[in-house]
Amino acid sequence: MKLQRENKFKQMIISSLSKAAIVAGIGILGFTFFPNFMNIIETNISSQKQTEIVKEAINPEYNNTNENINLDENYVTVTQNKYNFEKLKQTNQKITAIIEGSCFEGGYYPIVETKNQDEMNYYLHHSVDNQASSLGTIFTDCNTNEDSQVQRIWGHNFNNGGSTMFTKLANICQNQEAYDQTIGSDGSLKLYTENEEYNLDVIACVVNNPTTQQLGTYDDQNQFLIDMNNIINSSLIKTNTEVNPNDEIIILTTCTNLGSSNDPNNRISVYCKKSPVLIKEINQNKTL
Predict the structure, then answer these.
(1) Residues whose CB falls within 8 Å of the CB of residue 112, separated by 6 or more in sequence, listed in order
(2) pLDDT band at 76 (very low <50, low <70, confident <90, very high)
(3) Distance from CA of residue 134 to its chain's centroid?
(4) How high is the pLDDT of residue 126?
(5) CB 235 within 8 Å of CB 269
(6) Within 10 Å of residue 100's Cβ, how many Cβ atoms?
(7) 68 φψ region: left (φ > 0), alpha (ψ -120 to 50), beta (else)
(8) Distance CA 173, CA 269 (A)
(9) CA torsion, ordered 185, 111, 268, 141, to nearest 10 deg
(10) Average pLDDT, the chain
(11) pLDDT tens column, 7-20
């Protein structure tokens, strides 16, 4: 009887220790993965909210008013904007553009303009409606403006195989086959400002230190062509987009999937040529 009681007591201790180990293991796993899980949820919610803000600003008459418009130097093009920027600015006065593409979750994202480094740092960790968020907001480099010949736009890469912010864009533009089957064939990258629409035609994708690229407007157009040709020659993909001396370039920049995000060389830059599609001019006393 005594031996049976001792064995039973040992079994109870072993059982208790096993349960404690399981609970401890669950606790460790929860401590490790729960923050990441919650971060994924928060990011998805924030991304959906940003795309909803843009969706609600789409002009329902856009497709009808903009069909079959031909640009001609003898006329002023009067047309409806696709996006109601007055409505967008009710969310954030700094929204200056919308970027579209099949590589973006929901199809589009708002872009805010920054004026200094503090604002750039702010939008790394705040959504377009100024809520703290790991998603951040896509924003322009404070060293450029909408009139710059070479302008940079920043967005996060979440390295998760998804299409949030610049994640899918970065993955696609590092692989020739992926690029050819998506952006290269659908031409879906577009930029909308308050008065203009552009196709963003990819010319190159490079991994580099962004600070090595001159931003703003070149005084020497030959140097501009030299710089762009150097970028094209070092590109991870090849495209058919040609660059001319007076072209405007938008650089879409994010982190790579490798190395530390604190390493300035650990950046993917997708160079795009801004090709005007429609220009809106109003109150000019001219008609089509």
Answers:
(1) 92, 94, 95, 96, 123, 128, 137, 138, 139, 140
(2) very low
(3) 14
(4) 94
(5) no
(6) 20
(7) left
(8) 9
(9) 140
(10) 80
(11) 554 555 445 544 44
How many C-beta atoms surround the C-beta of residue 218 within 10 A? 19
Residue that is written with structure tokens 């064939």 in the block = 185
| Helix (H) / strand (E) containing 274 | strand 267-279
pLDDT per residue as tens digits for the range 95-104: 999 999 999 9
Nearest Cα to 189, choosing from 205, 208, 213?
Answer: 205
* Structure token digits, residue 268: 């993917």
Rounded Cα–Cα distance for residues 154 and 7 (Å)? 66
DSSP 8-state secondary structure symbol assigned to residue 83: B
DSSP state, 106? G
The one-letter amino acid at 254: T
Residues 6+ apart with CB under 8 A from 198: 190, 191, 192, 274, 275, 276, 277
pTM above 0.90, yes or no: no
Residue 116 has pLDDT above 60, yes or no: yes
CATH number of 38-279: 2.40.260.10
| Cβ density class 130-152: b for 16+ within 10 Å, e for less | eeebebbbbbbbbbbeeebbbbb
Residues facing residue 150 across a β-bridge: 216, 249
